[in-house]
């Protein structure tokens, strides 16, 4: 048993024992606005089981927004197992999901750093597996999200799985199927298709661009279509489309969360709402393609040309993920939690050039401390109002912006250094700017 | 004078005054603690007529012909025909019925409403969409008619009850292809007052000028501990002749605090502090200038109907028609006598407790009690129910419903609850506790007591949740149900002006069934006031500006980073030196130094 295994064991124990010994933990946590939203909370999943048990259509109402196959998957166990066994099985399932994600992150880390070493010709030392795994498993945001049994973790599992399949397994079809499932589960990962395909282009060994893009897109949409089709057959209607994805597009399940939109649409004048719904949906995808193109890894026949060294498709995936987490309709801290746990992958590449890490960390800390306090003041004590909580939402958005610009600028410095063959000693002295 | 006019109208209509088309009756019951329960009942029938399904295209003449209404209010009849309403029930109620000390509701609760206004109707229509159309038409008309905000009834508060309001009669539909739809809505925050009573009285052929309706003075009716007005209209059809007539039951029940009425009569409407020498103190306990333990309620009291309602009964409804007035009392404590205009006095006895008022003279009733605590009382209620809110935060809460069965046999009933959409109910959280003979609460499996006979979850802004539970409570047991909900945030414009006052949740309706599943008793819980989270109402522009700032900050900084060239600062200085602005500045500088040197 090596160190990684020991860390995995502790991680599992925290996730499995706590909710098994205190079964009320997931139910209590799933009502915390920072951890779960009506779209992905465990409480509404329970309600969906209740509807199934009493043969009520789970999509004829405003409580359940989980996709049908997820409900069916859980419902199957729910109906077969006694209640206490089912809850324990759930705890186990969530623990296993997190372990898989942690292991995948470790392998992504190895792959990325090996690739960078090979590409640039300068060996970069990645963080050890044990560190990578513990960055994920002991990330408090991830632990809380997992304990709240928010269904977001499944969506994250499939996003990470998709990246893993592309990189370590170099299997495009499986990767796109995974991403399709992630999209089916929570809608917004559809934005990740673009950077993931760009990553596929560089990570697959022998490839033609037509094959990668066309195959990838086709497999992705086939998966989504198939899942939707099975769901439609299972619920014998298409009402779930509106309940699961319409809600995401329309921003209309108004409940406080860490995102920017709930308060915006609460306060918005009726007649402007459709306009802003359109604008914000566009805005949420506006930087996906630019980021992907800017950090695209071009190939050149001449390996000595400087531009071969630049670009970083994996960073593009990461930045797109942060962008998605920033502008999601119903974000939780778990979305950003995964972004934090992914960041150490760049420990030897981009992170050394990041100048705002300290400020970002402090801002994040302020958010995490003040958000529950302000919410409590508003909702329970009544001595604060919604503006307090909203202000923290804005700062939360600010944290995303800081991460985005810090990583982007870090990568730009890195590219400059690579292009101009600046010696490692010079790299941290050089002062760059933009024109 | 008015009597002659009414009699004349009756004659013109060609109906004998003593008739089957109009009846009224009054029953009075003194209750413990010097309260008086008064039940006013009015029955009106229209003449039989062939009823057809009305829609925009078909004949309007059938409605224009109004000869069959006679006593039946001409204002309501065409409305029913135009909206194809086969049954209409309206309830206006206020106050809290204390079932533990008063007993069961009058007429087994079938005429009593919950707090606010409630309306349900059976509407004939080919589809539920058509039914909803007629329903909103009906609601808007009734709103204007009864001065209540029934016009706010829309899809978002309308339910189609299944077991709860079993309509007892009339499965009549004019067109056999059509279906009958039962629709219901309630407005719990509607204040009931005189402006609702006036149109109610106007429906009566006596217009409140004669008969028992002359007692109905708004100031007195609404100055009661509890009051409930009801209107029930049904369509009665003869299968052979295929002719139908409307039958309307109107009733008002009030519980009057007699002591308060007497005090008001003495002191006027504004309460005054009791003067020192008039204080009734218990002298056996500590008693001094500074100390006074008040005595209990007086049991030896005398009052008349005029004291309670402000005026006597203005004779029978029509000159030749009498009105029976029943007083339920105990002879050993009470002496009840009727006094008419000629000062003729008739005393009632316990066995013969009904007096029929005839003629046009005013009639007053004197109540004399040597011991007013001796009352016949009302039957014990078969079920006590109460519903309360749990939780303390604005974003979630729960309902705790307590059913107490005081009887000696198990009781089963339908629990109907419709909650507004902004309450996101989690029925999976339902827990039951029961207090049996042992007197301690124990958690029990809710499925042993409760079956979910119907549940339809709410849809945001479109449909309320609609739950019907079939509950059985064993003898002498108390069952408590608890379930939780989340409260949704509304949009800025959806909040009423007094948003922090809270939102009323309509009373739950409980229909007690006997072994044959027939309705035997009906009661309603109180309404509940739910406080929702509120945004800051002064913020719209600020929020647009601040959110806009954050997203433009994100856009601007990323956009710059992605499209600009990366250069070193030295290079930047060089480029900057060549810029026009720099050149201009350099020129100014040189000019300055040039001027200085001069």
Kindly state the mean pLDDT of chain B as a whole number?
87
Radius of gyration of chain B: 33 Å
Total domain units of chain A: 1
| Inertia-based shape of chain A | globular
Through-space gap between termini of chain A: 54 Å
Q: Biggest interface pair, residues each? A: A-B, 66 and 56 residues
Task: Give the helix/strand class of chain A.
Answer: mainly alpha
Number of H- or I-type helical stretches of chain A: 20
Strand pairing plus helix content of chain B: what structural class? alpha+beta
* Gyration radius from CA atoms of chain A, angstroms: 22 Å
Please give a structural write-up.
Chain A is built from 20 helices and one strand. Chain A has 435 residues and is an all-alpha fold. Chain A has one domain (3-424). The longest helix of chain A is centred in the first third of the chain and has 38 residues, at 83-120. Chain A is globular and about 70 Å long. The model of chain A has no long low-confidence stretch (mean pLDDT 92). In chain B, 38% of the residues are buried. In chain B, strand 1 (22-31) and strand 2 form a beta hairpin. Chain B folds into three domains: 39-258, no CATH class; 384-530, Immunoglobulin-like (Sandwich); 543-597, no CATH class. The N and C termini of chain B lie far apart (117 Å). Mean pLDDT of chain B is 87; it is low at 5-18. Chain B is extended, with a radius of gyration of 33 Å. In chain B, the strands form five sheets. In chain B, strands 1, 2, 3, 4, 5, 6, 7, 8, 11 and 14 form a ten-stranded mixed beta sheet that branches. In chain B, strands 9, 10, 12, 13 and 15 form a five-stranded antiparallel beta sheet that branches. Chain B has 598 residues and is an alpha+beta fold. Chains A and B meet through helix 3, helix 13, helix 15, helix 18 and helix 19 of A and strand 19, strand 21, helix 11, strand 28 and helix 12 of B. Chain A: Keywords: Endoplasmic reticulum, GPI-anchor biosynthesis, Membrane, Signal, Transmembrane, Transmembrane helix. Chain A: Pfam families: PIG-U (PF06728).
